[in-house]
Each structure stands twice: as structure tokens, then as C-alpha cells.
Amino acid sequence: MPVKTVLLGQGTCCISAGAKQISAALREEIARLDLAGTVQVKHTGCRGFSQIDPVVIIEPEGLLYSEVKVDDAPEIARSLLPQGQPIERLFYRDPVTDRAIPHHRDITFYNNQQRTVLKNCGYIDPEEIDDYLAVGGYQALRKVLSEMTPEQVIDAVKRSGLRGLGGAGFPAGRKWEACRRASRESRVESRESGRETPDSRLQTPDSYVVCNADEGDPGAFQDRSVLEGDPHSVVEGMIIAGYAVGATKGYVYVRAEYPLAVKRLGIAIAEARERGFLGENVLGNGFGFDIEIFQGAGAFVCGESTALTLSLEGARGMPKPLPRPRTTEVGLWGRPTLLNNVKTFANIRWIINKGAEWFASQGTEKSKGTAIFSLTGKITNCGLIEVPMGITLREIIFDIGGGVPGGRTFKAVQTGGPSGGVLPEGLLGTPIDFDSLTAAGSMMGSGGMVVVDEDTCMVDLARYFLDFTQKESCGQCSLCRLGSVQMLEILNAITEGNGRIEDIDLLIELGESVKIGSICGLGQSAPNPVLSTIRYFREEYESHILEKKCPARVCKGLISYIIVSDKCKACMICLRKCPVEAIKGGKNEVHVIDQDNCTRCGVCLSVCPERFGAVEIIPGREVKIHG
Amino acid sequence: MEARQVLSPSKKGKLIPMLQQIQERFGYLPEEEMVKVAQLCGVTESKVFGAASFYAQFRFTPIGRNRVMVCRGTACHVQGAPQIMETIERELSIKEGQTTPDLEYTLESVACIGCCALAPCIMINNKDVHGRLTPQKVTEIFATPKREAQDAS
After folding, report:
1. Concatenated DSSP letters for A45-114?
2. I want to staple A327 with a disulfide (CB 3.0 to 4.6 A). Which of A266, A305, A456, A603 is the partner?
3. CB contact under 8 A, A382 and B123
């Protein structure tokens, strides 16, 4: 019987940081020390605290070792011997207090969170259904099938106040109800037309449940983390949804760029089938439901429901124009289809197990439960967090995130990815909920939360997001297709120093037109990053245009690299490394950058030894030699 | 009612998975394979090409032996991903989306690799992640294999 368990996060992020090699080394050392009987090494999903990956956790003590390296494996294995001692040098050090913290429960990053959907991520082995069963997995499904009618399930979801993660935060229960109604009508229709035979229902289902895991925001990774860390919670939620709306077939539409999530989800589905949670007769209850994985082929617009449906049908994923029936009525293959996000399905088991009232007691009046964010950018504690709705941005960024590192100053936070907007310091008191974020010009959306500091140029950030959305525009609506390109060209001109002051108002006008003239959420929200940066950081646009300077020293056309002669030790490193030979000087002769030839590639800055720090970036292009 | 009869879930729904399998095998979508897919799925060739060209995942030219993916996620962008891309473009003498003439490298950008704590980062051959990069570190990464390749020849 194992006495100790070593938990090793094996999410994509952990693996990129080297978790696989550590696991192999640790297992080898444990075997060598003959500890295999008393120590169990368990692979889990990501713990969320990406900043300190790879993480090793020793239970039952709850010790956490951060930023572990392969070479640490022998010492960790020895610490697991009966007389072994915790390894202090591997403890997490609080970046604010610099105090070493031995236990994960005492780390501020974790103890300010409220983990529901992410509760099991990092604790259970996602490839082992027994691990999920041991933490109460599939109990909700058993309860639903044995005690509840589909109507009662829908009623519970409605009462819970759970909202979907599309732009508007539509109440999940109402969507389920609409789908059930449409599904019933469609079944009556098939029966009357004589098409339904007793065993035809699994092959050509009347309606479908589709899980949207096409996480397209380039700064969000929560769907991936849930699928990698607790895939059964999504499978269980989908089966319950199938029972509630009367569907017999489910699809998970997941990005092909998430190979590990696809793999683990595949294992989970196979295991669930084996144990009778999926199949023609779920738990012997006469209800049939099965799930298939569909890998999205890389199109951001496919997060939109009608585009996603078309993509599943093998077509170009282009949103259908209005007026059109809702996907809940005419969805996949023309049948009623319930489409929800990964997190929405993952919440269902909690609503069933703990009750709709419990769920509704969390969060704010109109936004229930928790919100998950991928907290990244210029932040001390980068990672995946789950917080109660209603918490303020300030609490997330400074209490959980630890603020901006390196003594730099917070400038803004961007939420909702390419569809969202930036919020300046003055709005940090904004509570996290669907409606407050929308009112402030951003959105909950994807759950991306990117913190930026004084070194981030807001014009460049807007340009970055617009560049993304204009590439992803499906091209149906002229204003989205052409307007976004026009806006991008204007932004390019501004960042290159060719902007005109009237361009700012032109951007606003174009942005508003693109919003009005697009049929889907992509076009309607594409101008958000531009409009919100103009709204809160207009002066940065003006600096680019009027002073020809990038205050954040980012836009290549509006900055200069210089060598501070007092600091230069004439060591020849930058001079040799400069790819365009733009640095003049020699041994014992202070180096100077020839501004006419400099391409501003940044190599000199990155090679100049840190103790000299002689290369600097300054805003603007008209440079006088600094002496 | 009409629509339900026209659409057959069985065949057409396999179009994208089929293309994915072909690309998995060949590294890109050869024209003759797409023609076969059209026949198998019972749709026109233009439909197949239309779908294939819509999605970013699909490519129509062969891929290099080493696939370099530069993360263009937001976190990487604000930490200097554009400079990283430029440096690699310079080191390999190709632009984003291109393959070196010797088919050694294909350079691509990808929406997000998903290790934002390591920003800016790149991934080579779907497995080796290099994180917290600077132009200098990039130069080092691409200097080594080049030398090895020269030694071998």
C-alpha cells in the first residue's frame, strides 16, 4: 500500500517545461531506492500555476516543489525515504515576501481562488477513470438517470443560473429547454413520417449535443487544461445534457492544435464506454448516448455556433446570415443541437451533486458560479485561475497574480482576447461578471486575461489583435472583410510613423461600421481592441502620430537603439553579432550604432552583458549621439 | 424536411477528418489525394479544395524536415515574439510560411502553443519547446543544427 503519492503535472505547459523527463528520472530513482512499494508516482493534469512549472507535489504532506529540474530527481527520491527530509531549496518562494512556502495550500496564488471546475485538475490522473470515480465521478449521471426526469435536470440547470460562455452569456438552462422542445417536435415528426425504426436512433440521431472546445483566443488555455486534466467531467456533463435534451449523439469539437487534450479525451471516452457510461444502454437505463471527437482544422470563426456546425458537416465554417433558426432548432445536419462550452459541461456535475441552490449561491446576482481565466503577460504569477464571479480585477491581478514583475508599472489588462478590450488601471475595481465586463467595453468570452505594463504599446497591441481577426475573417460580410483590413492598414501606418491625426477618428468610424455591418460575433467584436485602446489610451496614438514616438518603445519605426557611451566597455560583442554591421567602433573604442543602417532587430540589446547594460531603446527616430 | 434528406451525415462529415489523415501521412495535401476525397465523400472537387483552403491547418506544399512554430499568442506577443520571428527569418533566410529550399526547415506561426509562462517561445517538430527567448538565444538554437548538417555533409 503506497504511503506517499508524488503528483506530477503533465499538462502541455508542464511538459514544455520538462515534466516528462522529470517523471522518468524520478521513477527510475524511486525504483533504485526500492521505494516502489511505498511511493506512488501519479501523472495529473496541470495545477494551473504555470509560472513555477514543473511542479512536484508530495502527498499526504502537501509539500510543493517548484521549478524542478531533472537533476533534482535523486534528491527528491531520497526525501521520500522514511528518514527523508523535505528539500527546502525547492520550496516555492513568494515573490513579494521572498518567504519559502513548503505547502501548496499556503501559496497565495492558490488560496485566493475558488476551484470548482478545476478542482480535480492536478489531483487526479486524467487517463484513469478510477481516479475520477474515486472523487465522486459519474455520481451525477447515476443520480440523473435513476432519480430525475429530463425536465427536472433542465429545471436544475435553469435554477442554478449557469450562463454559457458565448459573447452574451446566454442562460444555459434556457438553451437546454429550447433544444429539448425542438428535439421532441423533431422526433414526433420522424415518427409520423415513418422514418424512425427502433434501432435507427443511434445512427441518425434526432438531435445532438456538441461541446465547443475550439479555443481560438491566442491567450487562453482553460478548455485545454480542463480536457487535459479532468476530461471525464466534460464527458459526464455531455451525457447528462444528452439525457436532458433527448440527444443520442455528442461531438467534442476540439482544436487540432491540442494533441494532448485530444488524446486524453479519447482515452476518457473509451473508458467511459467500457464502464457503460456511454453506449446504447447507459448504465442499463435504456438511454443511449455516444460521443465522438472532431478535430477543428484551425479557424477562429468556428467558435461561432453555425460556423462550427458547418465545419462538423465538412464545409467551410462560415456563419449563417440572419434571419436564421437557432442552432437549438436547426443545427447539425439540420437537427436540433445543443452547443455549449467545455466549462459549461464541466459545471453540470456540480449542479447535480451539490444542487442548483448551492451553485446559485456562488457569485453575483446575475453571474453565478466561478469564472476561469488564463492569467498571462506581464504578471508575476502566470497561470490558470478559477475565481468566484464578482471578484474584482484588482484582486485577481495583484492578490492572485502578484502584480507586475521587475518593478515595472501596471498599464492595462486585456480580457476576452481578440473580441475583448483593454481596461486601464482606473477600472481595476470592475467586478468580474458578464455584464460589468461588457459595460466596460470588454467581455468575459474566452477567459484570456493578459496583463500589460509600461513596456507594452497599446497601438501595437490593438494592431496585433486586429491582424489576428482580419486573417480569421471568413470573408462573407464586406465590412468585416474589408473594413478590418482598412483598419489594420491605418494602424500599420501609425506604428510606422506615417499616421495622420484624423486617422484616430477614422478608426472609430470604421470600427463602429464593422460592428454594425457584420453578421457574427467575430466581426461584431473585431474592432473592440482598437476602440477600447483609443478610448482609454488615446494619447499613445497621438504620440505615434504627432511626435513620431512610441512611448512604450515597441514600434520599430518609432524607436532607436543606442549605446550609452559611459556604460559601453568596448567589448566587441554587439559589434560582432550585429547582423547588418551597423555598429561602429573597435577594441577600446566605444561602440556607436549607425542609425541609418540599424534594422532595430534587438540583437545588440540581447547580447550586451547584463552587468554593462549599455544598449538602450529610446522612443523616436531622430537621434543625437548620446555622450 | 428537405434538408434532412439531402444531407447524409455519414460521408460528408468525414471530409475534414480525411484531409487531416492525408496531411498526417504526406505532410501536406497532394492534389490527387484531394480528388480521391471528393469521390469518396460524394462532393465536388471544388468543395474539397474550398474546405481545405478555408482552414489554417491545411497546406498544399510539402513541409520541411524540421517544422519551426513561432508562438504568436498574446502573451508571447507582448514579450517580444515579433523580434523572435524576425530573427529566425534572418537565420533561415526564409519568411514566415515558407520552407527552406533544401527542405530542412518550415517556418510557421501558431496562434498559441499554450505555455504562456515561457513566453516568448517556439516549438520545433511538435515537441521541443524553447522558451523565454531572446534574439541571441534564437541565433544559438539555429546555429547548432546548421553546423551539424555541415559536418555530416
Report:
1. ---S-GGG-S-EEEETTTEEE-S--GGGHHHHHHHTSTT----GGGBEE-TTT--EE-BGGG-HHHHT--
2. A305
3. no
Contact A16 B129 (CB under 8 A): yes
User: CB within 8 A of A582, min separation 6: which ones?
Assistant: A593, A594, A597, A598, A599
Chain A contacts in chain B segment 1-30 (CB below 8 A): 1, 3-4, 7, 9, 12-17, 19-20
Q: What is the DSSP letter of B88?
A: H
Q: Which positions in chain A touch B7 (Cβ < 8 Å)?
A: 313, 333-334
Domain limits, CATH 3.40.30.10, in chain A:
4-111
What is the C-alpha separation between A98 and A606, in angstroms, rounded?
28
Distance CA(A169)–CA(A186), nearest Å, equals 27
Q: Give the architecture (CATH level 2) of A458-547.
A: Up-down Bundle (1.20)
Q: Does A33 touch chain B (CB under 8 A)?
A: no
pLDDT in tens, A352-378: 999 999 999 999 999 999 999 999 999
Architecture of A141-194+205-360 per CATH?
Answer: 3-Layer(aba) Sandwich (3.40)
- A333 touches B at CB < 8 Å: yes
Domain A4-111 part of CATH 3.40.30.10: yes
Tens-place pLDDT, residues A295-340: 999 899 998 999 999 999 999 999 998 888 999 999 999 999 999 9
